Amino acid sequence: MNRNYLGIDIGGTFIKLGLVDDAGNVSLRREVPIDRSGSETVMETLTKGVDEFLLAHGLDAIDLEGIGVSAAGCIDTAKGCVANNGGNVPGWPHTEVTGPLKERYGIEATMANDGNCVALAEAWIGAAKGKRDVLCVVLGTGVGGGIISGGNLIEGARGFGGEIGHFPTHAEKKPAYKGDLSADYEKHAATSALVGLAAAAGAPWTNGREVFNAAAAGDEKALAVLDEWIYEIAMGITGLVHVFDPETVIIGGGVSAQEDLLVKPLREKILELVQPDFADGLEIKAAELGNNAGMAGAVKYFMDSRTRKES
User: Which of 260, 274, 195 is nearest to 228 (CA)?
Assistant: First the structure.
């Protein structure tokens, strides 16, 4: 019989909850909207959502193996809390998460960055299943991701490893002040950057969907904007490929569904840019797990953490 865990994925708009078994199957999914007005903290919304989830499905937390949390922002995995960078989640910096969950529900809990969780999930049961060296790039309003090397997630000293959105790809953009991120990868590769390129080209599109729709209809300006954006994405991934030598690059985020307009030309551009030795056998694929990736990856992180403690 499979063991069951509670998987939680905290984003900027919704908290996703699901029962996840040790084979990565997600069931009983529930979404809880985050109160962005500030009248209720994220932890208040979370615990209320978990209480309602357990009650609705006749579950007792003590019968679960544990809780795995995936969350936006820089996550101090050892302390189970959010660091100074809370991503796009309101009131999220410096929030303690795993301690309060353990105390309230009486079971163990772990927490990891959402991009890292996507990478773990895709390497576990998704597009990179069975691969031991995986680079995952998640394209959204920002850019997130995770890196698996030799079968192990790269976390760094505090759990902040894999913040690929914040490595500089534009050295010519000298910081004007401390914290100026204008040179960062996500400033040029996020979907918000795509919209910025469209505006700079004098186009009327106000979101990524409109750009892709126009490109699908054959609009030359839209195709040119997409080509410029894909080049920015490819340049960052090329640098990461040269550093980590992955077997597989996974492209995540909602835009990864655009196989013909994004993933295919991105694959071609990366294979054109990387040195031949790195291109040999390199796979570049869209993520497969969609909205389940964060919950499944959070549980995989929990399982791996427990295995490390027991060994």
Answer: 195
CB 307 within 8 A of CB 271: no
CA nearest to 230, candidates 204, 257, 193, 199: 193
Domains in the chain, number? 2
User: Residue 81 and residue 110: Cα distance in Å, rounded?
Assistant: 10
Confidence of residue 88 (pLDDT cuts 50, 70, 90): confident
- Residues 239, 275 contacting (CB under 8 angstroms): no
Angle at 177 between CA 171 and CA 178, to 5 degrees: 90
Query: Is residue 21, in this structure, part of any structural domain at all?
Result: yes
**Residue 168: inside a domain, yes or no?**
yes
Do the domain assignments include residue 100? yes
Task: Mark whether 137 and 283 lie in a shared domain.
Answer: yes
Are residue 153 and residue 15 in the same domain, yes or no? no
> Residue 26's pLDDT is what?
97
For 124-140, how does the pLDDT look when each residue is reduced to its tens digit (9 = 90+)? 999 999 999 999 999 99
* Mean per-residue pLDDT, 18-42: 93
Tokens standing for residue 100 = 């309060």
Q: Does 58 reside within a domain?
A: yes
Q: Report the DSSP pairing between strands 152-153 and 248-252.
A: unpaired
Q: How many CB atoms lie within 10 A of CB 257?
A: 13
Q: Is there a single domain that holds both residue 173 and residue 66? A: no
Domain span at residue 62 reads: 4-116+291-310
Using CA atoms, how far apart are residues 82 and 78, in angstroms rounded to an integer? 11
Distant-in-sequence, close-in-space partners of 170: CB < 8 Å, separation ≥ 6: 182, 183, 187, 188
Residue 304: CB partners within 8 Å, gap ≥ 6? 120, 153
User: Position 274: which residue type?
Assistant: V
- Nearest CA to 184 among 174, 199, 197? 174
How would you classify the pairing of strands 152-153 and 143-149? Answer: antiparallel
| Co-location of 189 and 154 in the same domain | yes
Residues 6+ apart with CB under 8 A from 272: none
Q: Look up tokens 């835009």; give the residue.
A: 255
